[in-house]
């Protein structure tokens, strides 16, 4: 018998992915400061994919305190270039700098998803996608950001792959769902195994 599923996320994309998959769930955003959770990890040797998992767990555990009988899904994503972790740009200048740093490089999107029940993590998974950005002319970056506007500030790295951001890419290795920020195939498999969805 299903315990009820709660998605601990305010992400429109994650909600849409679950909804489109036919999963019955409610949404509640976590009340945590992600940068405060992440700050002690800097310089500690924790990898970018582990940071994504720690953030996903923190979100799910927080929401689980208000829904102890439910199965809570937590998800988070980091963008890394080597050991450097990128965050959402605070302004257009930060977005411009991020795109120029990523230009001609292969960076990784590390997407973590966890299930928490009664405040305890009962399952976790991380998927990684490798994206190679083409060499970008600084003039093009300026025009690209002018075209995208404030949308550039809503995604890590200053681009949205499902929109104009695809024009920045030369090569992509990894599935679409990992890139969007929710490795949904392993999540659905686990939900089926737990009897939370029909299968």
UniProtKB/TrEMBL annotation:
Main location per the UniProt record: cytoplasm
Residue positions of the active site: 76 (proton acceptor)
Single GO cellular component term: cytoplasm
Single Gene Ontology MF annotation: nucleoside triphosphate diphosphatase activity
Subcellular location per the Swiss-Prot or TrEMBL entry: Cytoplasm
Cofactor(s) this protein cannot do without: a divalent metal cation
Keyword Cytoplasm annotated: yes
Catalytically driven reaction(s): a ribonucleoside 5'-triphosphate + H2O = a ribonucleoside 5'-phosphate + diphosphate + H(+); a 2'-deoxyribonucleoside 5'-triphosphate + H2O = a 2'-deoxyribonucleoside 5'-phosphate + diphosphate + H(+)
EC nos: 3.6.1.9
GO biological process, one term: nucleotide metabolic process
Cross-referenced Gene3D superfamilies: 3.90.950.10
Keywords per UniProt: Cytoplasm, Hydrolase, Nucleotide metabolism
Family: Belongs to the Maf family.
Function: Nucleoside triphosphate pyrophosphatase. May have a dual role in cell division arrest and in preventing the incorporation of modified nucleotides into cellular nucleic acids.
Protein name, as recorded: Nucleoside triphosphate pyrophosphatase
Source species of the chain: Fulvimarina pelagi HTCC2506
Gene expressing this chain: maf
